[in-house]
Design brief:
The complex is a heterodimer of chains A (113) and B (112).
Chain A: E1 4-7, E2 10-14, E3 19-25, E4 32-38, E5 45-51, E6 56-59, E7 62-67, E8 72-77, E9 86-93, E10 101-103, E11 107-112
Parallel strand pairs in A: 2-11
Antiparallel strand pairs in A: 1-3, 3-8, 4-5, 4-9, 6-7, 7-8, 9-10, 9-11
Chain B: E1 4-7, E2 10-13, E3 19-25, E4 31-37, E5 43-49, E6 56-57, E7 64-66, E8 76-78, E9 87-94, E10 102-103, E11 107-111
Classes of the chains: A mainly beta (113), B mainly beta (112).
Chain lengths: 113, 112
């Protein structure tokens, strides 16, 4: 079946440095790509999303890039802060369903002080 | 404040019992979803509902049942047929499909 691969599974960066998380999807019909942040014991929270007609989107310290030809998309966090520590998930819409998302396995981001 | 409320936060089930997890939203969203989250894995879709009185199976529907009698409510029943029910269950809603999904804070189900 269709899947989304997410790397790395754990990422440790120094406070103030940048963090990049990458995802690769298999369904060429996917057209919606959200990123979620999940803190311990809580539900995921949408932090940014991108649609297939756009190559890049920014929101303050967070940006997402999409390469449809290569079927991969990435999350970039600049000037990382301790509160950025969390698990981050990428997802891609299932091409034949407007309602189903295929999820990556998650990246645990650790910000070292 | 608008949002999604899941209850209870922790739930314990005895062998052979059915249990029902509650999910209520006041965002006026048409679509609602139930996911299961296991350690080290992404979210897996159990059921989703596009509108009231309609729902579809996701990837792992076996051993679960849902109902959607009201727009704001989408309860999930974990039946005794679900042999490995211990997990973190997340409910979400969206205005429509391929719109951002908003999540509740989950229910952690354990077996006694």
């Amino acid at each position: 079946g269709e899947n989304v691969e997410q790397h790395p599974s754990t990422l440790s960066v120094q406070e103030g440095d940048s963090a990049v998380i990458k995802c690769t999807y298999s369904d060429s019909a996917s057209n919606y790509f959200p990123w979620y942040k999940q803190e311990l014991g809580k539900g995921p929270q949408l932090i940014i999303d991108i649609r297939s007609n756009v190559g890049e989107k920014k929101d303050q310290r967070i940006a997402v890039t999409l390469n449809k030809t290569a079927k991969h998309f990435s999350l970039h966090i600049t000037e990382t802060q301790p509160e950025d520590s969390a698990v981050y998930f990428c997802a891609a819409s299932m091409g034949d369903s407007n309602y189903q998302l295929i999820w990556g396995a998650g990246t645990k981001l650790i910000i070292k002080p | 404040d608008g949002g999604i409320t899941q209850s209870p936060k922790y739930l314990f089930r005895k062998e052979g019992q059915n249990v029902t997890l509650s999910c209520e939203q006041n965002l006026n969203h048409d679509a609602m979803y139930w996911y299961r989250q296991d350690p080290g894995q992404g979210l897996r879709l159990i059921y989703y509902s596009q509108i009231v009185n309609d729902f579809q199976k996701g990837d792992i529907a076996e051993g679960y049942s849902v109902s959607r009698e009201k727009k704001e409510s989408f309860p999930l029943t974990v039946t005794s047929a679900q042999k490995n029910p211990t997990a973190f269950y997340l409910c979400a809603s969206s205005l429509q499909g391929t719109q951002p999904q908003h999540f509740g804070d989950g229910t952690r189900l354990s077996i006694l």
